[in-house]
Every structure is written in structure tokens, then in C-alpha cells.
Amino acid sequence: MNLTIAVLTVGDELLNGEMADTNTTAIARILGGEGYRLSESLTVGDVETDIAAALCALAARRDVVIVTGGLGPTGDDLTARAAARAFGRRLVLNDEALGQIRAFFAARNEAMDPRNEKQALLPQKAAILANDRGTAPGFVLSQEKTEFFFLPGVPDEMTAILRESVLGALHRFSGGVPPRRERVLKVFGLSEVQTEERLEQVLPPGVELAFGVDFPLVHVKLRACGEEAENLLDRGELAARRALDDFIVAAGETTLAQNVARLLENTGLTLSLAESCTGGLIAKLLTDVPGSSSFFERGAVTYSNQAKQQWLGVSRKLLEEEGAVSEACALAMARGVRRAAATDLALAVTGIAGPAGGTADKPVGTVFVALVAAGYEQVQRFGFAGDRSQIRLMTACTALEWIRRIAIKHLNDGAP
Amino acid sequence: MNLTIAVLTVGDELLNGEMADTNTTAIARILGGEGYRLSESLTVGDVETDIAAALCALAARRDVVIVTGGLGPTGDDLTARAAARAFGRRLVLNDEALGQIRAFFAARNEAMDPRNEKQALLPQKAAILANDRGTAPGFVLSQEKTEFFFLPGVPDEMTAILRESVLGALHRFSGGVPPRRERVLKVFGLSEVQTEERLEQVLPPGVELAFGVDFPLVHVKLRACGEEAENLLDRGELAARRALDDFIVAAGETTLAQNVARLLENTGLTLSLAESCTGGLIAKLLTDVPGSSSFFERGAVTYSNQAKQQWLGVSRKLLEEEGAVSEACALAMARGVRRAAATDLALAVTGIAGPAGGTADKPVGTVFVALVAAGYEQVQRFGFAGDRSQIRLMTACTALEWIRRIAIKHLNDGAP
Predict the structure, then answer these.
(1) How far is CA A281 from the centre of its chain?
(2) CA of A379: how far to CAs of A330, A372, A413, B178, B287, in Å?
(3) Start and end of every MoaB/Mog domain (chains A, B) (predicted)?
């Protein structure tokens, strides 16, 4: 059965420019990952007649409607009342909902505000959905062959109830299994077209291919349907990993930086950084990850030549003859920070992120990356396209990718 | 006249989790800034009958409908055809649209793909909206007292046409002036409640107050309507600036980091940084701004004690007796980086961003910030709440704010 699903989000703040409607996007992504596609989405303000009109219109034309927002304790939270009006039901104090709200406050040793009692005033025959993260109970109404799921607008409460209660119901409506499973592999260093070429004729029949972009990464989405979906995806992932080899830099919910951090923790390799054009971005990305102090010793953000000389030991002669944006300088920076920090690995970047500073020889986007370890040195020139922010991101991802590869090499054969 | 406005966005990718619908958010924000509120928004997929049904439903109930997406050259771009079907018009080759598309390619010395001709097939009586950024012409249809604006889905093309053509039309429908003007002041260091208290009874009558949050900043929105709006806002802004004093760290579209960068460029003051818990975040934020090399000399990301000793001259004794997370260490780090870099200003942060590493004395969120200049030293302990990412952001904004204040002091009285 091909379910038709609609999303209705409620809230003035979504229509007056105060806030982006992240809930529709999150629902589309979570459902999309399991193969459900939304037929439409709507947003209305905190106006009882507008909410009721939208509910009536959707009851006539969709199998499932997911409604978020307007379940709070204040006067402009009108969704339950609007649902009662739309479907000709009375609002009644729902004992189960009231018990859940009381339990929420009791678990926190807080007194319940009398206003929260309003959140238990729900349309007749509402079935309650558990919410242990907030005061608003979710609920379900069956109306004219349509299942209406009402969820709170707070994003983490909404997504928790969606995953815990709504997905399972959708699977039941679809005959016991989710219509589709998905795995995501994150590719760096190949364009979408190049990625697609490598995957031509390698995926087993039954595994569909889709793409997404999270600049500068390409997301490869493998999808399969039916009872055999997980087996198909296991085989598809194996084939894709073989075809894309180490252009795959992360998978699933993991980011490239998290992956690099985990690899460094596991190998015990320590790292120091010397950044010029990225201005601390690489260090920032790695130290976003909790526990990064176990491998990250230090970083230098050396914008000036003097800093490069003083902290990294880059010679004045080199800077004068080759310039700060050069292969020799990148290598000297990496050697210098490694010597100072006494780390296993040291990585340096120097380049021109723009918009100013480009020359005919070294246009904006010219970047040198260097990586050194015991008995190992690598340095390369890149010409990145894009604006300042894109050039900095491309540089940072290239740097992280180099660290990832050397850490994997270390895992595999003990070097460096 | 109070216009009722709806937005309809078209595209499968908005409903299957591939992409967030940023266009509705952008339209709501741009229109909201001028006082227009959306009555509702809808999203449908690339299905001709769904698009046509949505257009028919909206024609019956709204004054203005802004439609985005589905105007491209490929087979799944169906919006013009759906509009013709919905409103019983023929699709005709629009000469003005075709001329615009040809001019777009001519200006780029590119050959026009025959498929792009399809983009000039528009419903009868469509009035063309100029688009010099892409191939899809926007167009307007009047239908049953409703004005339909059809815009391309590419965000920068959409927002350009919205600002250049649609806003002016909305102002004309509303009687010649935008219904409301808005100014945004960005506050750091006061909560929303504290900000509101300071603004009580200081704004002139006719200036409305609203709030937004961009963690950790509070956005104060001053709004006024009618012919006198700009005068009212001038007076309102003056009063708000007096009441909030230097808790206002930026205004309008400017960020705190951009503001700090501009101040440093203007004063000619140079800066160096020593970061521990922020791991490069402060340097990253400042070097995001083009031209930051004119004032930013260097930054040290000193995660290890050894790095603090070696590059910043923090003594082993101090680290042993006071610990790396201490007032004394923050001050020594700032002094050390200033000595090495010979900058006018030097700022240091050290703290515990979590989730691990907290103690009873120094729980997660304990952060020390130090700023030194010639004849000037400031150091302070903070206890920030939140998760790792929030603690790092609070620390970075506090650091930027300290630099902003000292640069303003320098502008005002020549110190330090």
C-alpha cells in the first residue's frame, strides 16, 4: 500500500519570519530515510479557524497527517481545540494525558503549573503518545479513514515521538515493514558525476542510488525495499565501498571530523596543526568533537610571516624566496609545528582564500597542504574554486582527509 | 488594506527529505521585515495536478500568492503548465520571456540550449519579471482578484526578483508604503527578559518591540508603521541604544565578528589570540571576515600544557599550582602571546567545555578570559551553562565582545 502522507505545521512564528520551519524538513528527512515521501506540507498560523480548515481539507485527501505545534499551555496554543472543532468532537479532560503531565513534573520534583492542565484537554477518543521530554502529550485521532498524529512543536520532543511512536504505526499501515531502508556514504574528492560513474553496474539489482550534497562532500544514498532490504544494503554497501574505495570518508550520521577524531583516538596518534588561510577552522572542526584533547596537542594560526618564523621555524630566506604561499613554506610549517609539539603527525595549510590577495601565478584558491610524520612527508598544491568560505571548507576537508588516510595506513600496517 | 499572502513552493526534493525548504523561510523573513505576514504556506511535489489544485484553492482565498520552483527547462518543471491548466489559459510562447532567456546566454557568450525555449512557454497574459541571474523568467498572473507571482526556485534568483519586483507591487497594493519598517539591534550579555526591562517605557509611541534569538545573542527588533516609520525608528533606535548602551554588539545584517573586524581595521589595532577550550573557534570567526589579515597577527590553540609553556611562556610552576584552567593561566597566556606576537591586543581563553573534565571546584562551563594591552590587563572567571557547543560559543562571543569594547575605548580616548 502506498500511503499518502501530509505534514501540517502550526505557528505564527513560522509565517512572520521569526523562525524557520525545521520540523517539516526533519519529518521529511526521517520519513524519507525509510522510504516514505510526503505528498504535501502546509503551514498555518495560530488561528483556530485556519487550523480547523486545514485539518478538514486534509482529512478528505490523505491517509496520514502529521501535525506539529500548538499543543502548549498558553492561550495561543489552539491545535487541540481546532481539531475538536474540525471533527465535531467535544474537548474532554484526558486522564492518561493528565497523568503523563503530572508524572513529568513529579520526575523533576517541580510543582505543576495549573495552566499545564489545559494540555490534557483533548478531543474525545484521542489516543495518547508518550512524551517524557516535555509537558505536551502527543495524540492520535482517526477521522474519515485518515490517521492524524498530533505532536508538540519543540523539535527534540517532536522527533522523539516521531521515531518512537509514529514510524512504527506507518510501518504497520504499510504492511509490517518500512517501505524502504537507506544507508548514507559520504564521499570527498570525487564529484557527483565521478561518483555515479564509479557506481555504474556495481550495485546489486534492487539497490537504488540517490545523491545529496553537503558541501564539499557528496552523499551517496543506497536504498532498498522489502523484507530483504537489509541484506541487499549489506551487499550494496560492500560493492559501493569497493568501487569508491577510500573516497568514502564517513558514513551514516558521522561527520568527517568525528571520523578523524575517532581514528586518532583509536590509533593513539597525536596531532599538531599549523594553519594560515583556514585561520583556525581545522582546529575548530576537530575540537568540536568531545575528547579531542586526547590526540590534539596544539595548533598555530600563523597569519603573519613573523609567526611562521618564530613558532614554526620557517626561515626568512624561504619566505622571501618562495613566499608564504608555497610548497616549501607549507612543508616548513608542518615540520616546524611537529618539531615544537613533538606529535606523531603534523599538518599545515597555507593559501589564498580571497577575495583579495590573488596574483597571476597564485590566484585566489591556490592552497598548499603538507603532512609530515616520522620518515614521511607529503605536500601538494591545490587550485580550489569558489568563494572565501568554500575555499576554506575545501582546504579544511582536504586536511582532515589526509589525516584520515594516514591514520588508516597506520592502523593497517603500523606506519608511520 | 490588510493583504492576505500565501506561499506555494514546488518540488519533490522538498518533500522527500533531500532538501530543506529555505525559500518559504526567506520569503517570510524578507516580507516580515517590511511588516507583511504570511497567512499560510504550502508545499507540493512535481505533480501537475497537485500544483494546479493548490493554485485553484489559493485563488479562491488569498490576495497574493507567491509561487517558487518548477520553472526550469527539464521535464519535471511543471509549474507554468499547471498554472495554465488551473486557470483555463493556453500556454503560449512569450516573446518577452524568450528575449530575456536569449539575452542571458548572449551576455555569457554561450549557446542557448533548445530546451531552454520551453521556459518561455507561459500561460496567456503572463507579465514577465526580469531575472538577470538565471534562465527562468518570473511572471505574474491576475486571476479572480488574486495576484500570482511565479518565481524560480533557485534561492538567489528568487530573493532578487522578490526584492526587485514583488515587494514594490505589495507596497502598491497596500497603498504606496510598506506596512511596517524594522531595525534589528543585536544584544550580548543580557537575557531577553533583562533586555525587555531596560526598554520598558523608553521607546516612543508607535515603535513596537519584538525579540529574536541567535544564540547567544538576543535580537531586538524595533518596528514602526506608516509614513513616519523611518523617523519613528530613528528616535526608537536612539532611545534603545541609550538604554542598552554597549550591550548592543552589532546591528542589522552585521555579525559581532564582522563588527569587531571593522573596528580593528579602523583603529589600526593588531590582535593575537591564545585559545584553549575554544580550540580555534575565535580565530575561525575573525578570519571568516575578508581582510582580517590586516589586524590578526597570529593565534595559538594550546590544548597541551607543553604548548602553553613553550609558545606562551606560561611557567610550569603556575600550571602545577594553579592549573591550566585558572585566572593566572589565562592572564599568563594572554601576556605570553602578546609578547611573542608584539600586537597591541592579546586575548586568551582557558576553560572546560565538557562534557568531561569538570570537577567540584571547576565544573563544566568554567571559563577564564583574559585581555591585555599596553598598561592594561583584564581577567574574569565565567560559569557558562549549556552543552559543549554552547559553552564554546558563549566563550567566543565573550572574547569578541571584550575586544570590541577595548577597540571602542581606543577610538573614544586613544587608550590603550
Answers:
(1) 18
(2) 7, 9, 22, 57, 24
(3) 6-172
Min CA distance, A96 vs chain B (Å)? 33
Cβ distance A283 to B279 less than 8 Å, yes or no, reads yes
Q: Do B298 and A296 touch (CB under 8 A)?
A: no
- Tens of pLDDT, residue by residue over A233-289, are 999 999 999 999 989 999 998 999 999 999 999 999 999 999 999 999 999 999 999
Determine the CATH number of domain A181-251. Answer: 3.30.70.2860
Helix (H) or strand (E) holding B102: helix B95-107
Among A15, A62, A223, A253, most B C-beta atoms within 10 A, so best to mutate, is A15
- Of A298, A344, A334, residue with least CA distance to B309: A298
State how far residue B193 is from chain A, nearest Cα, in angstroms. 18
Residue of B nearest to A219 (CA): B18
Residues of B with Cβ-Cβ distance to A388 under 8 angstroms: 288, 290
Which of 3.30.70.2580, 3.30.360.10, 3.30.428.10, 3.40.980.10 would CATH assign to domain A5-173? Answer: 3.40.980.10
What number of C-beta contacts closer than 8 Å exist between A and B?
220
Superfamily of domain B257-413: CinA-like (3.90.950.20)
Q: What is the pLDDT of residues B84-141, one digit of tens each?
A: 999 999 999 999 999 999 998 998 888 888 888 999 999 999 999 998 888 889 999 9
From the number of C-beta atoms within 10 Å of its C-beta (0-12, 13-18, 19+), residue B79 rates as: buried
